[in-house]
Amino acid sequence: MKYNVLLLGSGGREHALAWKIARSPLLGEFYALPGNPGINALAKGVGGSAGDFDTVRRTVVDKHIDMVVCGPEDPLAGGLKDYLLSCPDVPSDLLFVGPGKDGARLEGSKDFAKEFMSRHGIPTAAYRTFSADHADEAKAFLRTLRPPYVIKADGLAAGKGVVISGTLEEADASLEDIFGGRFGTAGTKVVIEEYLDGVEVSFFVLTDGHRWLMLPEAKDYKRIGDGDTGPNTGGMGSVSPVPFCTPGFVQKVCDRIIGPTVRGLESEGIDYRGFIFFGLMNCGGDPYVIEYNVRMGDPETESVMPRIASDLLQHMAAAAKGDLSGEKIEYSPQAAVTAIVVSGGYPGKYGKGYPISGLEDMDGLTVFSAGTGLKDGRTVTSGGRVLAVTAVGDSLMHAREAVYSKIGNIRFEGAFHRSDIALDMINWKDNG
Ligand code: AMP
Ligand code: GLY
Fold first, then answer.
1. Residues 393-425: b if buried by 16+ CB within 10 A, e if exposed
2. 158 C-alpha to center of ligand 2: Å?
3. How far apart are CA 359 and CA 366, in angstroms?
4. Cα–Cα separations (whole angstroms), residue 369 to 10, 18, 24, 316, 414
5. Ligand 1 centre from 92 Cα, in Å?
6. Is 279's C-beta closer than 6 angstroms to any atom of ligand 1?
């Protein structure tokens, strides 16, 4: 059986998924909605947006799609899976990789996620939730905590809904800001939680609702500047594997976090078939959940995909059918490093439409398109994060060397990249 696949999304994560899917002998026709110039070299682009459910439905029907793979969270939180499967013209055996609206609450509502974790005994920071009309109680609760203070808008805020404040004055001001509408309706409720002191790491599983396959773990680099300085971004790079993820640590993640999460979903009647991304903090060797996402991570996916040796399309089909029992995931023994080339000014204001050169001088590396477009037949910048440059090697050090030996070949007006991706992990023994 071959699968006609429709991939939803347009970023570096989706290009990395497309790159992996395109290597599968099980792939039939391949479409991307809307895709980007990199993705569309592998899949036929369909105009429109993944948030326009009717366009997705029409594409599924017209192109005889067997499997939909949803890259971003918004369509999932909006109930795309439920919508498609309720349309009379969509075949009832359509395979959909991603949860329905119920499962997507793991990411769509931090309050839901925190309550879910406490119901199932999953380690996470202690917390309380407050609505805007209880701002005084929220401030009183802040006074029972030690700094720094972590305040999160409840809803989806494009990964930006978290404010960490060093002092009570700053925390009070952030609270007022969020209740005042800084994150729109995402901030009508806030979660205030204990600060977790540790090192972050991202784990990923593909689940059929009962069983799960663990993908290679990864670590992303969120700040704009070397040494983790400056403002937060959508991600400036990633590595996989992560040196402190020893078999013992991974076992704790499975026993304390992944197992209870999948069983928790099952016991609550949530038929979750798709990826779960566990944003974890390693606090002195013990994992805690910072957040769940109901999709793969960006830019982690760019380092994770090259490390999967088995057929991800086959695994996704089995997960979406609800039966992973025959599947076994295999990892490549190689390490992967990804550095992102961003537009000058990002994550603040930046220009678009600058021609990109040097893409042909990247032999041996994989370059994923994150924010690129086409203008008069040329590849140009079209976003803050423009390209993801990924290399594999027999160690993080070699993969890192490969990335930095060539990343400078990529040129466009204002191009910027961090120069220290992977260094902390290569030196982990010295630091840890
Ligand atoms: P989130 O959107 O929940 O992933 O939070 C964004 C970032 O804020 C995380 O990646 C962490 O770096 C940081 N963060 C969130 N919650 C905590 C916490 N309880 N303690 C320390 N850092 C946190
Ligand atoms: N790299 C973090 C995320 O995708 O949310």
1. beebbbbbebbbebbebbebeebbbbebbbbbb
2. 10
3. 10
4. 9, 11, 20, 23, 17
5. 39
6. yes
C-alpha to C-alpha distance for 56 and 50, rounded to whole angstroms: 7
Could you tell me the distance, in angstroms and rounded to a whole number, from the CA of residue 290 to the centre of ligand 1? 6
pLDDT value of residue 355: 97
Ligand nearest to the CA of 289: 1
* CB-ligand 1 contact for 335 (6 Å cutoff): no
What integer best gives the mean pLDDT of the chain? 95
Nearest-CA residue for ligand 2 atom 2 is 297
Token output for 340: 């992102």
Sign of CA dihedral 159, 164, 170, 172: positive
Q: 63: exposed, middle or buried (C-beta count within 10 Å: 0-12, 13-18, 19+)?
A: middle
Report the interhelical angle of 110-119 vs 101-108 (nearest 10°). Answer: 100
Q: If you take atom 4 of ligand 2, which residue's CA is the nearest one?
A: 297
pLDDT band per the 50, 70, 90 thresholds, residue 187: low
Q: What are phi and psi of 312, to 5 degrees?
A: -65, -35
304-347 per-position pLDDT tens digit: 999 999 999 999 999 999 999 999 999 999 999 999 999 999 99
For residues 49 and 68, what is the distance between their CA atoms, to the nearest angstrom? 14
Q: Which residues pair with 285 in a beta bridge?
A: none
Residue found by looking up tokens 């971004």 in the block? 233
Structure tokens, 335: 């390490």
* Helix/strand/coil percentages in the chain, nearest 5: 35, 30, 35
Distance between CA atoms of residues 179 and 132, nearest Å? 6
Neighbours of 58 (CB within 10 A): 16
- Taking only the tens place, the pLDDT of each residue in 142-174 is 999 989 999 988 777 666 678 899 999 999 988
Ligand 1 proximity of 107 Cβ (cutoff 6 Å): no
Q: How far is the CA of 298 from the centre of ligand 2 (A)?
A: 5
The DSSP symbol for 196 reads P
Residues near 54 by Cβ (< 8 Å), separated by ≥ 6? none
Phi-psi region of 428 (alpha: psi -120 to 50; beta: other; left: phi over 0): alpha
Query: Do residues 127 and 114 lie in contact, with contact meaning Cβ atoms separated by under 8 Å?
Result: yes
Looking at ligand 2, which residue's alpha carbon is closest to its atom 5?
Answer: 297
Taking the whole predicted model, whether its pTM rises above 0.90 is answered as yes
Give residue 314's region: left, alpha or beta (phi > 0; psi -120 to 50): alpha
